[in-house]
Amino acid sequence: MDASGDRDGAGGAARAATTTPPGEETPLPEAVPRLPGTVSRRGLLLGGGAVLALPWLAGCAAEAAGPHLDVSTLVGAITSEQDLIATYEAAKAADASLARRLDPVLAHHRRHLTVLKRHYVPGSGNRAHEGGTVPPPHAAELPDGAGQIMSALRLVEDRAAAARRADAAKAPPGLAQLLASIGACEAGHAMTVRAHPPADPARSAAQVVQKALAAEHVAVYGYGVLGARLRGSLQQTAQTYWEAHRAQRDKLISILSVEPVAAAAGYRLPVKVTSARSAARLAAALEDDVVPAYVALAGAPAADLRVFAADSAERAMARSARWRANAGESAPPDAFPGLPATALAPRPEPGE
Asked: pTM of the entire structure?
């Protein structure tokens, strides 16, 4: 992959010692110069993401929602999750052979619904006067045949992810983080990388922008390493995603009103790249690791920045799901990986 550009130290840095055994070093892409020094990615990232137990799925992370919630937005998300659960149950009833594949996803949606409902009723009673009436569940119409059902479910998930991204603009920052996380999970289910350009956020000096930038530096560097082990269409996919991370990095730099965090000369990567499969595993890990940074950024005060963050988290989860499918890997079915239990319930408002 071409690593030209003044800020491509991350993408063009030398491979860290942990990525290739001594004596077996594979040359990096021609335009990736060797630079000394490495730093641990753990020191820069907010934490790892996770994936679902199916090759066409990826997992989700979440953050705590604040006490002031937009009821109608929350009801929309609750309704969506109820409908997804009903649709998955209908799919299992239509074709029992799908149960093993669908049960982990269904469990995720049930977890999402449980957490959303915790935010909906903080001792508030009937909220119909606030636009808070939750309609009964409604299953989407499904076609016949296992393959057609799976395609329909991916489309339903994609629409749900798009709705959560739009919700992030309307919700207060704390709730926006939770909705962005759920949307990322659903984008992983759909495994869709959107063709439209990502949202263009306003300038911001928020510390969370710097953390997202640090995560992108690692991703750009990591894709520069793994690209040398891929060929054909997979190498082209890696090239496309590498360029996407470079563009994302540049956008984050452009919206900062302070000096942006610089890329390190190199990073210790979580996977040794010795084959096409391990390259795909590394790519999935890189995508997983940018998701927590964007979920955190979804709590920004500016609505356009929240949408940008939600969109970015969704794209990363979709890419992760695709790489894991290529690597033939599954993962722990945790709906909210690495998240403290206290972050899954709303903080009570005074008087509640």
From this structure: 0.73
